[in-house]
């Protein structure tokens, strides 16, 4: 898996969309703060079960 920080960098530089970050890389990014939602990212990547 690609490091979440690198995916965030690409989103900020408009190389990857928010949707693609979530769908293709399993990285949830808060569109208000432009920060990684680590809890949701962990869930998307299969590291935790949904609440």
Termini separation comes to: 23 Å
Helix content: 40-55%
Largest sheet: 2 strands, antiparallel
Beta-strand content estimate: 5-15%
Helix-strand category: mainly alpha
Number of strands: 2
Write the H/E string, N to C: HHEEH
Rg is: 10 Å
How many separate structural domains? 1
Would you mind describing this structure in some detail?
The chain is mainly alpha-helical and 51 residues long. The protein has one domain (4-44). It is 47% helix and 8% strand. It has three helices and two strands. The protein has helices spanning 4-12, 18-25, 38-44; strands spanning 29-30, 35-36. It has a two-stranded antiparallel ribbon. The longest helix is centred in the N-terminal third of the chain and has 9 residues, at 4-12.
In short:
This protein has one domain (4-44).
Top keywords for this entry?
51 residues, two-stranded antiparallel sheet, mainly alpha, globular, 2 strands
Ordered list of secondary-structure elements with their pairings:
Layout (H helix, E strand, L loop, with lengths): L3 H9 L5 H8 L3 E2 L4 E2 L1 H7 L7
Antiparallel strand pairs: 1-2
